[in-house]
Specification:
The chain is α/β, with parallel strands linked by helices. The protein has 5 helices and 6 strands; from the N terminus they run ααββαβαβββα. Strands 1-6-5-3-4-2 form a 6-stranded mixed sheet.
Length: about 260
Amino acid sequence: MASRKEEKERLRAQRLAAERAAQSGGRMRLMAGYVVAGVLTLAVIAGLVAVIASGGSGGGGGPDACSNAHIQNTGSFKGLEPDCREGTTESAAPTQFGDLTVSARKAGCELRENLPDEGNTHVPNSTAVHYGTVPPTSGNHNPIPISDGAYKTPVTSDTSKETNIRNEVHAMEHGRIEIHYKPSLPEDQQLALKGVFDADPDGVLLFPDPDMPYDVAVTAWTNEVVCPNYNPVVLDVIRNFRDKYRGNGPEQQIPINLG
């Protein structure tokens, strides 16, 4: 029969063993908590990286996709591929004809100013709209404009519910200038247009437009100049039109940085 002292030692040993088991279990739970927290943290970081890589809420290329596209967070760029090409420097040469009317005539372009305002109501994509000019120069449109920048994706065809002709019209309402060019233009001519854009991209959009019958067109709210055939004087036309109509939209909510 065990003595009283031995019985106390046995009970003490049992108590210590139970305490060690409890401590070990606590450490295991703590370590499991650390692992779960680490996994969640990594998931959050991965999510942030994915959002940043996709251009935030805009998707597509985003402002950081390439510096040559000059994309600004002034609206949506979801589904649009940025134009990362570097424009030719010779297109930044001094203007030969500094008057819009004169340059348009010399280039064989048609200048259409003070066109009818076809409306500026914000409507959902489910609401039918019709634009009286090609490219459009005013009219009801999507609540979100297309961000300033150069894109390789056509935006005038109504093929996407997020980036289409309605968003493009909204950008003009905010005083933006839009340079349209026929996708079939030779690469050197496209790069010359890109060079004019690169030289002064603030408040300007550049993109291919397969829906128009012209080589080049430049539009602003209720104003446009259309050029059936590309030639070097068209670059003067673009500069002159941009300088006259940039910032003249009826809903100038997003500022244009002109330096």
